[in-house]
Amino acid sequence: MSAISEVFERCRREKRAAFIPYITAGDPDLETTGELLGALASGGADLIELGVPFSDPIADGPANQRAASRALASGTHLSGIFEVVARHRAAVGVPILLFTYFNPIHARGLERFAEQARDSGVDGVLCLDLPPEEAEAEYLPVMRKSGLDTIFLLAPTSTRQRIKKAAAASTGFVYYVSRTGVTGTQGELPENLMKEAKAVRRKVKMPLAVGFGVTTPEQVATIAKVADGVVVGSALVRLVEEHGGTPELPGILEQRVKELTAPLHGGG
Amino acid sequence: MAKVSLLKQRAAADRIGRFGDYGGRYVPETLMAPLDELTRAYDKHRTKRAFKRRLTDLLQDYCGRPTPLYHAKRLSERLGGAQIYLKREDLLHTGAHKINNAVGQALLAVEMGKERVIAETGAGQHGVATATAAALLGLQCCVFMGSEDMRRQRLNVHRMRLLGAEVRPVESGSRTLKDATNEALRDWVTHVRNTHYIIGSVLGPNPFPRMVRDFHSVIGIEASRQLKKKIRRAYPDVAIACVGGGSNSIGLFSAFLDEPRTRLIGVEGGGRGQQLGDHAARFDGGTLGVLHGTRTLVLQDSDGQVMETHSVSAGLDYPAVGPEHVFLHDAGRVEYTSATDDEALAGFHLLAETEGILPALESSHAIAEVMERAPRLTSDKVVLVNLSGRGDKDVESILEEEEKRRAQGTEAEPPRPRPHGDPS
Ligand SMILES: Cc1ncc(COP(=O)(O)O)c(C=O)c1O
Fold first, then answer.
1. Dihedrals φ, ψ of B96, to 5°?
2. How close, in Å, is residue A245 to chain B by CA atoms?
3. What does the alpha-carbon distance between residue A102 and residue B296 come to, in Å, rounded to a whole number?
4. B355-383 pLDDT, tens per residue?
5. How confident is the model at residue A77 (pLDDT cuts 50, 70, 90)?
6. Is the ipTM of this complex over 0.90?
7. Which letter does DSSP use for residue B389 in this model?
8. Pairing verdict, β B18-19 and B22-23
């Protein structure tokens, strides 16, 4: 069983949803990213999504766009991201999932990317703009061979057939995008989310995480009722933006993760 | 040796949405089902008599098709070689070929029950065309445009607004076409249920590259028929067009793909130098990548970060080229070259002075190539050039550009720094 599957298995036994925070690698710089991985884990992350900055993040809202710009401006390269994971994965102790656009993988070459990811200790890959259809021929076999989990996305527009396809191509878990839109929306959760997420979860028969626009502990608690995992991204990225470059940042992030995970442990 | 028909290969490629190794559909999941829906709608309507009739009527009575084929005698004489024929897409309503596609897709949007259309624009021509089609068909319209392009193409910004469209400035990246496309895609992901995205060139995920091409294929079909009338053969010796995303060129070339006697030449924006970042010549400095939903040649660094581009012409200032062009390049069917900013400006002036036609800066790149080639051909040869748009929109920026050059003595501009380049 992969480390990611084990996380969901453990959470299932503990009768709670997994907490999955997202940050962009290299924001504000890679050294800080190393510290932040530790802070997220100490705060209560069960699994970490680490974003690979890309010049053209079409599925991201302004907060994550700015994070990617900061990361690229500080000279972040894929090789550097692998080094940071290699240095910190063991100490951090929770699985790390790369959250990326396809072009950086394509540029590296599938085989080389997969090998380097695995060797550095990355546990899985979620590629935002690579649907199962485009992944089947080459991407999936290469990732499988390297033992990396492949997570695919589902959206409110996904048809029954597409839900099947994404589930069949995914290992570890499936990621349900809470709304038609980009990352970082603030405000209320979409009205139909609970109903839709429930329906999708019945169909996929594997752990389902829900993300995009989840910002408060109350929202985490709500989603935890219908999902096996809750992803919080931009809300944390905004903290990194606000406190980046200050020595307080890791502590602030850890504290925020504690607040966000409290409802999952019966607190809050 | 049996020659394989490129048109037959194309038909096969269209069915799978992939031109050999290029094309495909690399988009967020949210867009996948809507793209299936669009593909079904397009394939249903493109062969339907009612749809074809409506489109043809609009192209004729509203847009002004067929556009003339004009024998540019004074230009031919001046260059002292081949006979030059201009396909006058510049005379279309709104001033460029872009309206062929905008009207086609807007009609399709109505058929699909969408109430809103969005578009990205660089030169503003596609934005104006989309705003126009939207006004005509009673659709809401929002156009995304980089703020740098809004400055360069101020006139077109006013035109779009007068047509009732919202123009949204895009401030990210180099604030040009690539960034406008990012923002349009983000809007589409968010409003996909009631909105159709009218992509402005043969780019983006399947079915856009083939759909946009089909809507422009009328250019080559007409030109071939007109040549037949004028010179009694339905093909030129050379056909030349500028290549931004590649829509006007593929519209012209499509009619001659299986005509071995016609050389096809696409002209990219050579910008101000050969360094990555200083030009938009994808066939020169590009490598295979995935941008805006399609696998194609992209100007990028070794880490897959897409580079900024430069061209004096906003419509060519884009880091990727339509996937079918890469296929046609590999097949050895189309030759791709580039013209620099300076060469394009020279082309602009030459056409203005010899023929009384102000070409768009994009089209001026094709004229620059004619200046290279025509003198080397004998006077019985025929060169067909797609004059994809008119230059009214560019007058201000040309004055500004030449002012700048005079002030600097030459054209020397400091090279822009290259942000990335993985050392590994
Ligand atoms: C007049 C004109 N020609 C050419 C182009 C380049 O696009 P394409 O290569 O798709 O024809 C543009 C784009 O804005 C344009 O306005």
1. -160, 170
2. 21
3. 13
4. 999 999 999 999 999 999 999 999 999 99
5. very high
6. yes
7. B
8. antiparallel
Is the predicted pLDDT of residue A255 greater than 70, yes or no?
Answer: yes
- The pair of three-digit structure tokens given for residue B36, joined into one six-digit string: 């299936």
Contact (Cβ atoms closer than 8 angstroms) between residue B321 and residue B283:
yes
Instruction: Measure the CA–CA gap between A174 and A201, rounded to whole angstroms.
Output: 9
Contact criterion met (CB below 8 Å) for B274 and B4:
no
DSSP structural state of residue B61: I
Tell me how far apart the alpha carbons of residues B414 and B399 are, in angstroms, rounded to a whole number.
20
Catalytic choice (A49, A123, A149, A196): A49
Distance, CA of A103 to CA of A268 (rounded, Å): 40
Q: What is the CA radius of gyration of chain B?
A: 20
The residue written with tokens 């695995």 in the block is A118
Out of A60, A123, A149, A254, pick the active-site residue: A60
Can you give the pLDDT at residue B411? 52
pLDDT attached to residue B415: 39
Which residues in chain A are closer than 8 Å to B423, comparing Cβ atoms?
Answer: 77, 79
Q: Strand B140-146 to strand B116-121: parallel, antiparallel, or no bridges (unpaired)?
A: parallel
Predicted structure pTM score: 0.95
Q: How many CB atoms lie within 10 A of CB B125?
A: 28
Please give the pLDDT value at position B413.
45
Residue A179 predicted with pLDDT over 80: yes
Q: Residue B422's pLDDT is what?
A: 40
Location of structure tokens 């109903």: A195
